[in-house]
Amino acid sequence: MPANLTPQYLEAELKFKQAKTPPDKIKALEVMMAVIPKHKGTERLRGQLKSRMAKLKEELQKRPAVGRAEQAYNIKREGAAQVVLLGLPNSGKSSLLSQITNASSEVADYPFTTQKPIPGMMKFENLQIQLVDTPPIQLDHIEPGFPNLIRNADALLLLVDLTEDPVFQMEILLDQLSDMKIKAVGKGIIPLLEAGWVSLRALVVGNKCDVKNAMEEYRKFENRFKDTFPILPLSAKGGMNFDELKKEVYQLLDIVRVYTKIPGKEPDLTEPVILKKESTIEDVALSVHKDFAAKLRYARVWGSGKFGGQMVKRDYHVSEGDVIELHL
Ligand SMILES: Nc1nc2c(ncn2[C@@H]2O[C@H](COP(=O)(O)OP(=O)(O)O)[C@@H](O)[C@H]2O)c(=O)[nH]1
Ligand SMILES: [Mg+2]
């Protein structure tokens, strides 16, 4: 059976042959493993790639972390939300994490560290959002622990490299998510899913928009996916569109920020209470203390669409930016 190797594969193979150091070889091999067509005709070749990868890894790292793999995928949620970055090798996940969060990771130069997820905190206005860099998505291999990491996230950031057939990359990503019974939902309402499936909000980022002709590729990509996903061009390296990215990530999360105040005092606008959209005054009280929720009589609200200090009941739905005075 013919292997029918794609141009992406052949290009990666060329890079592999030209690579001089094990890290560079691993990087190229990661790409080859990700894009190699998955059928009977490539079975042997895929086996060879795997063993080559294993040898290279051995060369690089003499201390194998047996049994640690799954644990490495348990990333403690911090801040307002946890957003997982997904993409093929070289899409720029690690670059983005290093540029936009406090995590100073050398992932770009040293492919090994990307074998484990790495969290970092991204500041957006008065809150912190956790981003998690992940090992590259590969067609025929899923690390144990990886599906759970994704499933437990609050949202996904899908990265595609605009200089390497982004439509194709997107298809691989969506396929791989499907294999894990995960549905990435960009726009519109969340569809009803079969048992065992989960859905996650996703934003798509076209990275490397600084490269020549990348924006042309972006337009094509955008046309193809704009009805189903929010999409943003970005340069992780050049720091382009970071403010927009933060805003879009925040919107993806379906959360609101409200502020509590004590009667006669000003609210502390640096300490938002973070709640799911559609939350009520009762939820605000619960977030302070469960006794508060039990004893709550009414609240006063300042915010858009209300007159200042309007009295509301516990089932009142709060909006972004509301200032709330709880009365017991
Ligand atoms: N021109 C350009 N190169 C980038 C950009 N982001 C990442 N890269 C390069 O793409 C390669 C892969 O980046 P990396 O962050 O390691 O990708 P990862 O495998 O997805 O983590 C590196 O050589 C980066 O320098 C970008 O915005 N523009
Ligand atoms: Mg990486």
Describe this structure in words.
The protein is 34% helix and 21% strand. The protein has 328 residues and is α/β, with parallel strands linked by helices. Strands 1, 2, 3, 4, 5, 6 and 7 form a 7-stranded mixed sheet that branches. It has a 5-stranded mixed sheet with strand order 9-8-12-10-11, with helices on both faces. It is elongated, with a radius of gyration of 23 Å. The model has no long low-confidence stretch (mean pLDDT 90).
Indicate the percent of residues in helices.
25-40%
Query: Structural class, from helix and strand content?
Result: alpha/beta
Q: What characteristic shape results from the CA principal axes? A: elongated
**Unreliable residue runs:** none
Task: Count the DSSP helices.
Answer: 11
The major β-sheet equals:
7 strands, mixed
User: What ligands are attached or bound here?
Assistant: guanosine-5'-diphosphate, magnesium ion
Helix/strand order:
HHHHEHEEHEHEEHEHEEHHEEE
Overall pLDDT metric: 90
CA-based gyration radius: 23 Å
Characteristics:
alpha/beta, 7-stranded mixed β-sheet, 328 residues, 34% helix, binds magnesium ion, 5-stranded mixed β-sheet, single chain, binds guanosine-5'-diphosphate
